[in-house]
Amino acid sequence: MDVQRWDDMYRSRDQVFSGNPNGVLVAEADGLPPGRALDVGCGEGADARWLARRGWQVTAVDVSEVALRRAAATATAGIGERVTWTRADLTATPPPAGAFDLVSSQYFPLRRRPDHAALRGLLAAVAPGGTLLFATHSPADLAQHQEEGFDPADYYQPDDIAPLLGPAWQVLINESRPRTAQAPAGTHHTHDTVLRARRLT
Which of 29, 37, 200 is nearest to 128 (CA)? Predict the structure, then answer.
């Protein structure tokens, strides 16, 4: 991943995102019993803080040191003790296998590869009985950005992931739904695509 590009983006503003947790995470994880969570591409840390307030022990990972410093600075006492802020590129180095009861990937730009190596690393990180929660922008929304040199087909959608799960998984949700929060500034995202799956073994 282009670490410099992400650092520059976070340096460009005092706060890039709203500071609120992602709506898909709130909707899908609110009823889960707390355990160990992996926040993939944590950015400024809103999702990690939300999970920590609900009793989760969170490993919050991002490639941007700028984002991680900002996230750690906004974590209050008690919450900060439940979150480990970690700089890593999960597309190159997989997380520990079977280590997490929740792997949450919210709008993380996971590029498709023929061997699916990075994706398989995230799947393997889910412990038996744990949950994979993957959310991204709908293909129709992403298509608006093709003129910027961005091809949505280069990145995973839930429909790409679900067939790769196999009998060890139970797919609970694979759908497109209207966004529950305002789209980021300068974008026109109206729908999310969401995959929620439980690892059986």
Answer: 200
